[in-house]
Amino acid sequence: MVGGGFQNIFKIPELKRRILITAGLLAVYRIGVHIPTPGVDGNALADFFARHQDTILGLFDMFSGGALERLSVFALGIMPYISASIILQLLTVVIPHLERLSKEGEAGRKKITQYTRYGTVLLSIIQGFGIAVGLEQMSSSGGAPIVPMGGWGFRIITIITLTAGTAFIMWLGETITERGIGNGISLIIFAGIVARGPAAVSKTISLVGAGTISVFEVVPLAAFMVGVVALIIYVETAQRRIPVQYAKRVVGRRQYGGQSTHLPLKINQSGVIPPIFASSLMMFPATIAQFSGVPALKTFSDALRPGTVYWEVPYIALIFFFCYFYTAVTFNPVDVADNLKKYGGYIPGIRPGKRTADYIDRVLTRITLGGAIYVSAVCVLPTALMVMFNVPFYFGGTALLIVVGVALDTVAQMESHMITRHYEGFLKKGKTRGR
Questions:
Q1: So where are the chain's domains?
Q2: Domain 2-430 has what CATH class?
Q3: What does the pLDDT look like over 211-222, one tens digit per residue?
Q4: Which of 78, 140, 258, 408 has the largest count of CB atoms under 10 Å?
């Protein structure tokens, strides 16, 4: 039962300790979101963001959990780290040295992680400089400058503060992954998105009270949202099961094998990585352009905002690319086919070896297409709701995929801890299909 499952959490010391560590570190992150960067007029900055919520700044602020709107020490969020990870993964395909490191096991992964950290600091310095220069040229609607005393002193302090903030968030994420429960980087993004939920609910209630939106519109909208979440959960846990048969083997007087099983292939094999990567790549140049003083770049940034064709088309194209790219990086049909052959397994009707690898690759390519279409549809959902139904808040898209995906991953990890120690899980018989 669900109640018994939650009670069992506190009967496992290790799981209890991991949950408390995760909650504590996420609380530290949320406190840091409210610590402002020196030299900025908070009221003028809030007024500026109120006039630019529908631009790229509003989307970037959502991923930073409201830190950019306050220009806190965590204003850059975790996006520089994600951008550096994207660059390293892409370079792994074309640079032999990085490819060798990726195949050297734990030592190689540590080296790549080190390169990713260096790249994070470099990108943070570049973005911090762009934000500092841009803020010096911005003002509120009343003409009050956002930065009363600009210059290189302010720029250097801003660069150091924002870079240190991103490095600290990176450490928080890695510590949560190592000592807490779930993926730390994803949980930090999750916390920032969920923290904005109460404000959206409050805004909707105020609009209903003011008569801008009727109750008859809110109820069907709420039902539709519940249906979308249910659909995402269904697709995220859906699998294409390829039947696998193991041949009988006789070792001494004992007979092994002969059982039937299956090879599970997820519909959305790459999870929330494609929309996160796509958003990061789209936001990085747009943010630099938004805060730059070049009129042509500002025009480019204004055109490249969510809801426009200039944003949606490249965004969907990047989602498709990363769906296939990340699936190819994390799942190798040749290795799977070799392992099946090594242990006497085969797919009925398919010859072991290359034929099996080709068959798995063909099935994976087809279901990845369906997964990419599904992810793209969810990611353009907010635009459709805002334009067609005048929804007063951001629902769907990358944020919803991250929230649902991270919640499923975290619950699955907690389930595995509990079931391993013979405790009842959250659901009856302790069965939760992990992602």
A1: 2-430
A2: mainly alpha
A3: 767 777 777 777
A4: 78
